[in-house]
Amino acid sequence: MASISCGGRGKICMAVLLSAAIHAPAWANTAPGVLAGMHKHELLASMIPDNGDQNPYAVVIAPVSAGHIKQGDVLVDNFNASSNLQGTGTTIMDYNPQSRQATLFAAVTAKLAGCPGGIGLTTAMTMLKSGWVIVGSLPSTDGTTKTMGAGCLIAIDATGHVAGTIAGPQINGPWGNMAVIDKGDRATLFVSNVGFGIGAPGQKAVDQATILRIDLAISPGQMPEVSKQSVIGSGFSSQADASAFIIGPTGLALGANGTLYVSDALANRVVAIDQAASRSDSAGTGRVITQGGLLRRPLAMTLAPSGDLLVTNGLNGQVVEIDPASGTQRGAQWLDADEAQSPPGNGDLFGIVADGKSLYYVEDDVNALMVEQ
Prior knowledge:
Layout: H1 14-27, E1 41-46, E2 54-61, E3 74-80, E4 91-96, E5 101-107, E6 121-127, E7 133-137, E8 152-156, E9 162-166, E10 179-182, E11 186-193, E12 206-217, E13 225-241, E14 245-247, E15 252-254, E16 260-264, E17 269-273, E18 287-291, E19 298-303, E20 309-313, E21 318-322, E22 329-334, E23 349-354, E24 359-363, E25 368-372
Antiparallel strand pairs: 1-25, 2-3, 3-4, 4-5, 6-7, 7-8, 8-9, 10-11, 11-12, 12-13, 13-14, 15-16, 16-17, 17-18, 19-20, 20-21, 21-22, 23-24, 24-25
């Protein structure tokens, strides 16, 4: 999603920051479930590093302390460079809740061997218990899908150094926020790939996006190695878009029962892929959990401690709470009610993650990490 920065390189106008920090509570709905107890919205830090990257996408909470990262730190990557061209961002920021400071964790070279098309970091990011950060790239050279490359997954060690890439014919536009099963010496990643069949903005949607399961073997001191890849979901719609770059399946969340939930943006629904960790075939587009209602192009998704799904909307500034067992939409709450967009907050929200007491998310209109408690 395109965003704007306010002020010079690496800076944000304080007036805009203050507005972002206070506007959401005035719009907040009282929603049942997890959101009912959350009413305090706070701006934590700018996610713009010194090189001017912007448009924060992925939000990940560190599960362990390793290298330069402390357990509980919040990692955020950027999809745009200082030019504001989409698919050109190369940086990952590290926010420490104790010091309340954000620092640069990693800066990936814009042309990385083994990553077709260059670098544009997406919401496909996670940190493993072994300390490795895995992040997706869906690159462009002009900010549109006309020059889009297939991209890759990038393995970064806990000190911020790139160790290598994961690429191949099953990886094309790794896009959505990852769901993960992490056993330490092995891990399983679930990631959506939205690049298959995508043309220039304005072309019709194609039903070629996939959900890929990647099994990793992890040896001490060694980059994770792919032991197996399996397409477990297929036929999802994706479409090039001038403002959002690509619209396609974005949010991935793994339930306790092994069900993988997917936010299917163009169909305006959330679906489920059963037996996601063990199935050997594709479930197609899965089974529908909920559709329409409060959903307005569902994007990033996280699983709350209660087991409910929390899904950001792409077409307004709300987060929607869903009971995955019944499909009931419990309600919605405004995270971003910026009236500069229509509807308020349209195109501002993307990454989201819950840590048990807080909900971290990014607002692209001010390029900042936010928290709701």
